[in-house]
Amino acid sequence: MQAGPRCPRRAPVRPPFDWTDVTDSSLRERPPRTDPVLARWRNAVFTIFALSGFVFANWAARVPNIRDILGASTQEMGVLILGLSGGAILGLVASSHVITHLGVNRAIVWFLATAAVGLIGAGLIAGYTPSFWLLFLALMVSGAGNAVLDVAMNVAGAANERRIGKTLMPMYHAGFSVGTMLGAGTGALTEQLGVPVEAHLTAVGVVVIALDLWVVRYLQPAEEPHEAEPGTPAGWRTRLSAWTDPRILLIGLIILGMAFTEGSANDWLGLAMVDGYGLTNPGGAAVFAVFVTAMTAGRLFGGAALDRFGRVPVLAGSALLAFAGLLLVIIGPTAPVAIAGSVLWGIGASLGFPVGMSAAADDPRKATANVAAVATIGYLAFLVGPPLIGLLGEEVGLRKAFLVVLVLVAVAAVCSPAARKPKGLSG
């Protein structure tokens, strides 16, 4: 019997879409999970930045109440607030030496607590023994504590950024912004509820100290392990050498320009919208809130842009956005155009300070001294900026006074190549 013709073997039918390929590919391409120890360190640094902003904003929210308690004039309140700024400058000048002596993590513990103790002192003095000069001293203590903390937490953030291998500094500074928003909200609520200033600021200070002692358990050493180079001095003269490093000074100019840009909006944008565009006081406050929101968003999402395009293009682009936004606020024909400008201004101002701090900390051996130097230059903007814009605004109007800010934004853009990581440094 003859066998019939054999049927050809049919190839196995493949599904039209193989999900295994997709999941296998996604597993292969998924970035490695961050080490839990580094992730907890990252979250701790973010919390510390937020606590720093929280301390400052709770004080700022009660300034009108404290003015009424003291019966002080606007000029006298300006002198009082100089205590905060003066303490900050003293803290910044001493910061590299103090942090080198204590270590980064111990400096964070002690000086976040110092800032909180100054806040508690300010509340108790205002509530129980109102004294202008005692309050001035309490603010100096808080300002000095926050300044040393500022340098230490930026050094810790830069070290964590290097270990994880992703740009995180803008996110940390967004944490500061989140802290200021929470602090402002807390202050506004206590003001609305009629909570005495001494009870409010004391409670905030105690909570901050408790969180400080809790969160620092998750910090890792920020100092990079390295062998000391023969013949390299490690004393205060070496730390002061940051002030003769051209790259560090140029990074300082970037931070100066962008800090001036940020600070000018913080102090004067709301009033400029009221005086220049006829908005109501609540409307001016709302535009300032739009600016802060845009700046916070820029910091939260700016890390991805920095990792993709690099520091120099992103810094230059940020300066361009800030420049364009400022122009719209200065010469915009209508309030909606100026509001759109405030959004661009906020996004453009968001990355200069954190990226400058990260760039200053590129060399871990000199990170503390370099960060202290550029932070001191940047803080000059917060000291000089408000009165300068105010004086010019009195003569030519606030919108025209912002032309000074345009110049400093342009300087920051020109200096942006200094943020490129030097050859020979890993990461």
UniProtKB/TrEMBL annotation:
Annotated protein name in UniProt: MFS transporter
CDD domains xref list: MFS_MosC_like
Signal peptide: none
Entry's Gene Ontology cellular component terms: plasma membrane
Domain Major facilitator superfamily (MFS) profile: 247-427
Gene3D superfamilies given in the database record: MFS general substrate transporter like domains (1.20.1250.20)
Domain of life of the organism encoding this protein: Bacteria
Subcellular location per the Swiss-Prot or TrEMBL entry: Cell membrane
Keyword Membrane carried by entry: yes
UniProt topology in membrane: Multi-pass membrane protein
Keywords for this protein: Membrane, Transmembrane, Transmembrane helix
Transmembrane annotation, as ranges: 43-61, 81-100, 107-126, 132-159, 171-189, 201-219, 247-265, 285-302, 314-331, 337-357, 369-389, 401-419
Record keyword Lipid metabolism present: no
MF term (GO), any: transmembrane transporter activity
InterPro entries linked to this entry: MFS, MFS_dom, MFS_trans_sf, MFS_Transporter
Pfam family, one: MFS_1
